[in-house]
# Entry
Amino acid sequence: MVQSEHPRIGWIGAGRMGLQLATRLVEAGHDVAIYNRTKAKTAPLVERGGTAVDSPADLADRDVVFSMVSASKDLLDITTGDGGVLTAEATPSLLIDCSTVSVAASAEVRAAAAKRGCEYLAAPVSGNPKVVSAGLMTMAVSGPAAAFEDAKPLLELLGRGVTHVGPDETARLVKICHNVFLGVVTQSLAEITVLAEKGGTSRAAFLEFLNNSVMGSIFTRYKSPALVNLDFTPTFTMPLLQKDFDLGLAAARELEAPMPVASAAAALVASAVGAGHRTEDFATLLLEQARRSGIDLTSEDVEIDDGLGNAK
# Structure
């Protein structure tokens, strides 16, 4: 358990999300040291008062170590692999992983942490760098309830919603369920937006109506600028969404929970990846839906409020 009111924090992973989240801790006055495989990416945090280290093992003497990496293998590498944070002489009191990874990988890390007397929380996040910057990131957390309560003041610095969802790896399934829903909603949003446009309504007008109705949400408003102006600067790519559909449908088979709508959406996401939509934002599902509907989309070039305090 973390004893200090001002714990020394380690952070592993300086990707777009990890850097934004670690920065929030630095800006809250915490002592944060960060590791990233490409050390140059830690520079923005160092400029704000953080420190950079050369390996995950260099963070082992920290009170709390967060990690946010791209895949299950990466999580195993930075924890139990050569130079991992759980391989040094010292051991952090608490390890919190914010990545979206498999249940099996997370359980393996939990077992390794337990052998070292280290508490472990699975804490995958929902959002992207812009959402984090706006303070709207949410987080599902699973693991020992006492460890969660201990870490809650730190976790609440990262966003607006931190929910303890159960023991062990429960949060992994919760996050996968969230991302499957994300894909289903985006595909549905693409379909109805193309339908409205083909019937003579501009995308801007349709989405303004939708966002002001009971069916609107933070997400539909946030994605509206991309759909209206065809700005597909990536926040989350199609291959990453495809990976999460694969994990979700595998869990559905294991738990014998039919997911016919999600299965259909997964096939459309796979089709979009096959069509070459690999590096843009997953909102390019709109372009594939338009193609199947026989229309060519152009940017409407209008200002649309994304709901995060910025008009585009």
In short: The CA atoms of residues 60 and 91 lie 5 Å apart. The chain is about 45% helix and 10% strand.
